[in-house]
Design a protein that fits this description.
By secondary structure, this protein is an alpha+beta fold. The chain is about 35% helix and about 40% strand.
């Protein structure tokens, strides 16, 4: 698994103009290929009168799914440069649709490549990105007497507390970088006199 990746902060649209042609780049986060395709369909419907609606998306923290479409532009001049821009910026779980309204001036292959790739790059700069980092999930089981202070200490030291459940004992679910597992385990044993149980679990991504 990748230690971290970047994705778009939120969905949005950024417009650029090249030789009288309008290029509207719509970006959105997409957790699955189905979400990406649904977003593309929505933009296509909204801009059904456009000359082209070219798209690209990257799904998976390891970029396992990469697809692109030129939507009628000369082969390799739209979707591929859009995809390359997303990959160059380490973007994952993201979909981009560039809508072109032709302005009467032909751009040529090189001009199209720069225009479509550039539209995605400018949209990323304008809308902003966020970094997601891989974390180790872990469960801490502790008695009620120590739970409140322990939870407070975890939060004040910047640990991500994901869930707290109360039963016969208190279960606190946290997420932490793999490199910190041993240190947290040792700290926990120290502050609870060895009474708390620490169980590492699976992995998940969270905001860095």
């Amino acid at each position: 698994m990748q230690d971290e990746y970047r994705t778009v902060a939120h969905a949005g649209v950024h417009e650029t103009e090249v030789n009288r042609s309008r290029f509207l780049c719509a970006l959105a986060p997409a957790a699955t290929e189905q979400e990406a395709q649904a977003f593309i369909a929505t933009v296509r419907k909204e801009h059904a009168d456009a000359t082209h609606n070219c798209w690209a998306y990257v799904i998976g923290a390891d970029a396992s799914v990469q697809k692109a479409s030129d939507d009628g532009e000369p082969g390799g001049t739209a979707g591929v440069p859009m995809l390359q821009m997303l990959l160059r910026r380490d973007m994952r779980y993201v979909v981009a649709v560039v809508t072109r309204y032709y302005g009467g001036v032909k751009l040529g292959a090189g001009g199209l490549i720069r225009a479509y790739g550039g539209a995605v790059g400018e949209a990323l700069d304008t809308l902003g990105t966020r970094t997601r980092r891989r974390y180790r999930l872990a469960t801490i089981t502790v008695d009620h007497q120590r739970a409140g202070k322990l939870e407070n200490d975890l939060r004040t030291t910047g640990r991500e507390v994901r869930d707290v459940r109360y039963g016969e004992a208190v279960t606190i679910e946290i997420a932490l970088p793999d490199a910190d597992v041993d240190a947290v385990r040792a700290w926990l044993a120290d502050v609870t006199s060895g009474t708390a149980r620490f169980e590492p679990g699976g992995e998940a991504y969270g905001d860095a």
